[in-house]
Amino acid sequence: MTLPLGVYRADHVGSLLRPTLLKESRTQLEKGEISASELRSREDECIRDVVIKQLAKGIRAITDGEFRRRSFHIDFLTQIGGVEYREDLATIKPTRDSPPRLFVTEKLHHPNAIQVDDFKFLQQRLRDSSVAAAGKVCIPAPTALHFRGGRENVSREAYPDMGLFFQDLAKMWQQEIADLYAAGCRFVQLDETNMVYLCDPYFRQSAKERNEDPDQLPLQYAALINAAISQRPTDMKIGMHLCRGNYRSQWFASGGYEPIADVLFQQIDVDVYFLEFDDERSGDFKPLRFLPPNKIAVLGLMTSKGPSREERDTVVARLNEAAAFCPRGLDQLCLSHQCGFSSSMEGNELTEEDQWEKISLMVDIAKSVWGDDLSL
Q1: What is the Cα–Cα distance from 349 to 249, expressed in whole angstroms?
Q2: Domain range 20-370, CATH class
Q3: I want to staple 350 with a disulfide (CB 3.0 to 4.6 A). Which of 53, 128, 154, 307 is the partner?
Q4: pLDDT 10s digit of each residue in the chain, 376 long?
């Protein structure tokens, strides 16, 4: 089975550990010791290096490591007109920090392309390379502006009718995807870290307490995501990453995919799913029985949360176990870590050396199972 453009047997979710230079530079910016342009110049330098490292390790779905972001979603979402950051959200696990909450304070608007300049810089680095690879842009899914608060986080003055809010929300992603396509991007990954929370009893109850129906929300979110990607050209592929939290090696939710599996796999019009499966919190592989034969599942069987190296035989055995539930078996599967290595600037609790060794191991395992990549 030939994989969709931008998808590889050894793949990754996107974010990579920030070099010390970047962390120090952001601190210097906050203190007024360097300018924003100086920070960007240093980001450029680090991105050049991380592209070379990805290619050298055998990765072919290339990202900029999300080096220009503080977190995988906040930097993007706060560039949408009408969105305001205010406070943090509770979690079921005691943590040092909690996920942020965003508020919609006025009519949504898309004043400027958000990721285009960053993508263009990445694409030029790939053009400079002699290795065939595809640039990937990761952006949060539109559900991020609803799930973490629901109706109470959306201005009633701006949106007395939530139906109009969801329409405008989809338009923000339609415009950004169109801008990225015009810039040459052909693969966009939506980081959907909300729908899978509806597999956790705690968050299902939380939804009920804010007058949401946890059984209907997956359907509502599927319609929202489908609208958001509905105008993409046929030669642009869309992936969707699902996980249950990945902040400084901490998780926020638990539960297998079964409560949302039918909607997730049968009713959302994406080409590929990046699925968290690195521990028992993600449940078993039975939900993959809903995976259509024309779609791909990238299984996050390896963990980015710590330095431990997975056993090759265990990973291969789990791939084969999962394949038994897929219509086309191993042909529909790829391998990755469950999430990025640095969903926020701070990063997970492992070293850069650990990160690259784990990536090398992943590539080696994938080659032992599938041979060379067959991405278009």
Answers
A1: 6
A2: alpha beta
A3: 307
A4: 789 989 999 999 999 999 999 999 999 999 999 999 999 999 999 999 999 999 999 999 999 999 999 888 889 999 999 999 876 554 444 444 455 689 999 999 999 999 999 999 999 999 988 888 999 999 999 999 998 889 999 999 999 999 999 999 999 999 999 999 999 999 999 999 889 989 999 888 988 988 899 999 999 999 999 999 999 999 999 999 998 866 765 757 778 899 999 999 999 999 999 999 977 888 899 999 999 999 999 999 999 888 889 999 999 999 999 999 999 999 999 999 998 888 777 877 899 999 999 999 999 999 999 997 655 4
Amino acid at site 60: R
How many CA within 13 A on the CB side of residue 10? Answer: 25
| Residue corresponding to tokens 């958000």 | 114
Name the one residue in this structure whose structure tokens are 């969801």: 166
The pTM (predicted TM-score) of the whole model is 0.93
